[in-house]
Amino acid sequence: MSLYGLLNTSASGMAAQSTALSTVADNIANVSTTGYKGASTEFSTLVTSSGSGNYQSGGVDADVRVAIGSQSGTTSTNSSTDLAVDGNGFFIVSGPNGTPVLTRAGSFEKQADGTLENAAGYTLLGYPVGTTPSANSYAGLEEVNISDLAMKAVPSTEGTVKFNLPLQATAVTDATKLPSANAADATYTQKTSFTAYNNAGTAVNLDAYYTKTGDNTWEVSVYNQADATAGGFPYSSAALATETLTFDSTTYALTSPTSLSVPVPNGSTVVLDISKSTQLDTSYTFSADVNGNAASAVKSVNISDDGTLSVVYEDGSSVAAYTIPLAMVASPDNMTVISGNAYLPNQDSGSVQIGTAGTNGFGTISDYTLENSDVDLATELTRMIQSQNIYQSNAKVFQTGSDLLKVLVNLNT
Question: What does the alpha-carbon distance between residue 127 and residue 124 come to, in Å, rounded to a whole number?
Answer without folding.
Answer: 10
